[in-house]
Amino acid sequence: MVRIEDIDPPRCPPGADSEILRQLEAFGLQWDETVRYQSARHATYQAALDQLVSQGLAYPCSCSRKQWREHAVYPGWCRKAACEPDKPMAWRLRSDLGLSPVVWQDRLFGEQTFDPAQLGDVVLKRKDGLWAYQLAVVVDDADQGISDVVRGHDLLDNTPWQRQLQVALGLPEPRYLHLPLIVAGNGQKLSKQNLAPALPTDDDAARPLLHHALLALDQTPPAELASAPVTDQLAVAIADWDVARLRPDVFRVPPTI
Ligand SMILES: [Zn+2]
């Protein structure tokens, strides 16, 4: 299944979705079902927020970041009543009333324990009406029957809010596997923000990159497959995939290609 998480329109230039789909295809990754767009899911996210509000687990907040900048996390000033009810409101989660402590077993990094008080009341819906990732991803994962969440270590500390939301909304708990982050030699994450080049969409360029991706995941792709068609590489990689080979590094500098 492919889900385009386009909840933040200013960060989603037109055509970005079709480029992502072409990149997936270039690496031999195909999907069933129609591609789902989070931008079309407003009513479902609103229903989830309404449920949280009716349970007393979400509240409107008028505070600006500037007002609480001396605190490590938002101190929950609007929990009982919005400080300035005439101003635009964001909606926040009552992290103090949810699952606590939040404990789960990460498949690579082992048992994780978080105190919600250290995390603060995460925003679920922004003042400009846009949905926050935390709520949208939890609702869609459950709706699409996602059993396994596999993603970068940079999202590990988002998991406690997502676990709280799953419990509050009565949704199942998926398994979690957080992966080391590939960083450049200067220690920066490979990302659009750091001007990392986009993935190629031509077959010749994709082949060696797929091989290197498997090496970066501590798997053991046969060297002679390094320039083989991506579908051949993937067939071997799927048959041979072993999560136990992964080393629990937070950061990973790949060998230069
Ligand atoms: Zn507030």
Detailed description of the structure:
The chain is an alpha/beta fold and 257 residues long. It folds into 2 domains: 41-178, HUPs (Rossmann fold), CATH 3.40.50; 192-252, no CATH class. 29% of the residues lie in helices and 15% in strands. It has 7 helices and 11 strands. Strands 3-4-7 form a 3-stranded antiparallel beta sheet. The chain has a two-stranded parallel ribbon with strand order 1-2. It has a two-stranded antiparallel ribbon with strand order 5-6. A hairpin with a 3-residue loop joins strand 5 (102-106) and strand 6 (110-114). It is elongated, with a radius of gyration of 20 Å. The two termini are 30 Å apart. The model has no long low-confidence stretch (mean pLDDT 94). Zinc ion (ZN) binds at residues 61-63, 77-78, 83.
Reconstruct the topology from this structure.
Blueprint: E1 3-4, H1 16-26, E2 36-37, H2 42-54, E3 58-61, E4 90-93, E5 102-106, E6 110-114, H3 116-119, E7 123-125, H4 133-143, E8 148-152, H5 159-168, E9 175-179, E10 181-182, H6 203-216, H7 230-240, E11 251-252
Parallel strand pairs: 1-2, 8-9, 10-11
Antiparallel strand pairs: 3-4, 4-7, 5-6
This protein binds zinc ion (ZN).
